[in-house]
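Why do we bother with holo predictions? Because pocket geometry can differ from the apo form. Keep that in mind while you read this record for beta-D-glucopyranose.
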Amino acid sequence: MRRRKLLTSAAAITAAAALALTGCGRSDTGASSSSAAAGFPADAKIGVSLPAKTSENWVLAENLFNSDLKAAGFQPTVQFAGDGGAPAQQQQIDAMISSGVKVLVIGAVDGKQLNTQLAAAKAAGIKVIAYDRNLQSTKDVDYYVAYDNFKVGELQGQALLDGLKARKGSGPYNIELIAGSNDDANSKPFFEGAMKVLQPKIDDGTLKVLSGQTTQDQVATQGWDPKNVQTRMDSILSSKYGSAKLDGVLSPNDTLARAAMRSAKDAGQEVPVVTGQDSEVESLKSILAGEQYSTINKDTTNLVKATVQMVKDLQAGKEPTTTAKTNNGTIDVPTQYLEPVLVTKENIKDAYKNDEALNKIVNP
Ligand code: BGC
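The structure, written out:
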C-alpha cells in the first residue's frame, strides 16, 4: 500500500513540519530500512504486552495474537498491564525478556516509560515492534505497525463537520472537544488531525466551543475512562449551556462517544452529532439507530496479521515491509501504516463485509 505523499503542497509541508516538531512526524519511504535479525528458531517465544482493556479492539487483539502466533508455530505470551498501568507493564516486559522471547510486541500504556526495558531488550538482541501506539523518545524500537492515527483524526474532524451540516441545519454550531489519554502517544495525532480540520472553522466562527476548552490538555481524558468524560461533560453542560443547544462533540473513540451522548441525554439535550472510533458493537447499533454519527473502522484482524507477518519475516531473517517512517522524538521508526475507514449510517451496511462478527451486527 502506498502512503499518501506528504511533501507535495505548501499545506502539507506545514503539516509535516508541525508534526516533526511535536515528535509525531511521518514521511514516506519507498524502501525498507535497517538490516533485520539473522533469524531465530521457528518455535521461538514471542512476548505481546498490551495496555488496558479500554476498548474492544484490545480484547480482540489479545485473542488474535494468541491464535495467530500459535498458528505460525510460535509460543506466545500475551499480557495486559491493566489497572497496574505503566509499572505493571514494565514488570511484565522484564519477565518476558528474562523468559527468552525473541520479539516483543508492545502496545504501550505510556510510550515514554519503557526506556529501561527497551534498552535491556536491545542488549539481549530482542526485536521490538510498537503495536498501534508508538514507543516514544527511545532509539530502542525497531518497527511500528498501526493505522494512520493522524488520518483517523482528520476523518473524525471532517465527519463532525459533515454530520453537523446534515443533521443540525446551517451553523453556527456549538460543539465540545474530547481527546484521549495524554499518556497514550496516539492521543496527540488523533487530536491534531481533527483540529487541522476544525480549527479554521472555530477561527471563522462556524464552530463555537462554549466551554472555552480547546487545547489537548484541557480536553484530555485520563486513562481513556468514560467516567471522566461524563463528569467533564456534565459539568460543562450545567455551567455553560443553560438553554443553549449542544450540536456536536468531537470524540476520539466509541467508548467516550457513548459517554458524551449519555451526558447530553441526562442534561435534556437532543442527541448531538458525535464522532467515534473502533467499531464497537454498541456504537454500531447506535449509528444504525441514527444516534452516534460516525466511527472509524480499524480492523484489528488486519493489524494483528500485519504484526505477525513482521514476526515471521524476522524469524526468517528477512527485513519486514515498511512504507513510512514515524519520528518518535529520537529516531525515525520504520513504519507500516494501514488505512483507517470512516463509517457512518450511509456506508455501515457495506463497511464490515469482510468482518464476520461485525457484519452480523450491521446486517442482522
Ligand atoms: C487506540 C484506539 C483506542 C484507544 C483507547 C488507542 O491507542 O488506537 O483505537 O480507542 O487507544 O483504547
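Confidence is low (pLDDT under 50) at residues 1-24, 30-37.
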